[in-house]
Amino acid sequence: MNDQERYEQGLKVRTEVLGETHVGRSLENLNDFNADFQNFISRFAWGEVWSRPGMSRHTRSLVTIAILLALGRDAELRMHIRACFNNGVSKDDLKELFLHASLYAGLPAANAAMHMAEDVFVELGIAPEKLK
Hints:
By secondary structure, the chain is mainly α. It has 7 helices and no strands.
């Protein structure tokens, strides 16, 4: 696969995972400063790594969220929490991930991610039901 084919594959996967709105906004905002970086992201992250057959997108989403949670990368974390449902991740999967991550990445990081996920759920119209 050449660089152009890898870029096209990357855009396809990036759009399937993150959604047309997000990727479209990135492409609309291309300029002479960020174009090479955006091309790199599509080609390498999405056309190379996310396109590999060795791990499902479901698992890749959970791993990505866990790493972003541990590193405190809130903007990327919010984006991947929003996108994970495109890869078959459920709210229960996220709940278990946050509980598990609280042991290894720290309770404050997992707590912040839990609240962030709840905000994303509201935005997506899938807010959890309140307990009585």
